[in-house]
Amino acid sequence: MNETAAPLILVVDDARDIREPLAQYLRRQGLRTRLAANAVEARRVLGESGADLVLLDVMMPGEDGLSLCRDIAAKGGPPVILLTAMAEETDRVVGLELGADDYVVKPFAPRELLARIRAVLRRRPAPPSQVTTAARHFAGWRFDPAAREVVHGDGRHARLTSGEARLLAEFLDRPRAVLSREALLERLQGREAKPYDRAIDNTIARLRRKLENDPSRPRLLVTEWGGGYALAAEVEDDP
């Protein structure tokens, strides 16, 4: 495998005797790795180089792995496999509800973990969709993807995260079409939705807080029960 094309795995574990041997094993299997001992270091690495997948220890001092997993999923980040000593089913379900793609219970066999990594990566065949550079208008708002900003004619404005901007662009590309969370997750992150995956729902909620007059009663980004979400507005290109 070409080194530059190999998936980049971020190993986050406070135990040096776990993360370093694990990283060495993954490199021998043709994967690239970055290491982090805590959530602060993990965020720095994700901001600098990103990652194709995160191996994330649940029990860490300071901010724990579940909190970091929730944050990664909410921001539309890479898939996460939790490394957990928790064997109880309820604990595993919590991790999946927070956005994890899979989990491995410690102590684990490296070959099993490698198989889980490859299985998750296979569910990401397509790269994330790209946001167009053209500004567009909808429901009194002007969306500037280059600045990741929305400005309303009445003076309201808000900055968007990269995940929010990509999701809004998907709706602007298909106004009034019902888009399922499964389809949106695959297009935006190149991975399948898990039963407890709430990454899209969380991003929708943040967009509603920025765009809707009353986020509790959305009229712009509407929910289609049993179907998904839709943008209930006409879209025009910037003059």
Describe this structure in words.
A 5-stranded parallel β-sheet has the order 2-1-3-4-5, with helices on both faces. Strands 9-8-7-6-12 form a 5-stranded antiparallel β-sheet, covered by helices on one side. The chain has 8 helices and 12 strands. A hairpin with a 4-residue loop joins strand 7 (141-144) and strand 8 (149-152). The protein has 239 residues and is α/β, with parallel strands linked by helices. Helix 6 packs across helix 8. Helix content is 37%, strand content 21%. The protein has 2 domains: 3-122, Rossmann fold; 136-237, Winged helix-like DNA-binding domain superfamily/Winged helix DNA-binding domain (Arc Repressor Mutant, subunit A), CATH 1.10.10.
How is this structure best summarized?
With 239 residues, the chain is an alpha/beta fold. It contains eight helices and twelve strands.
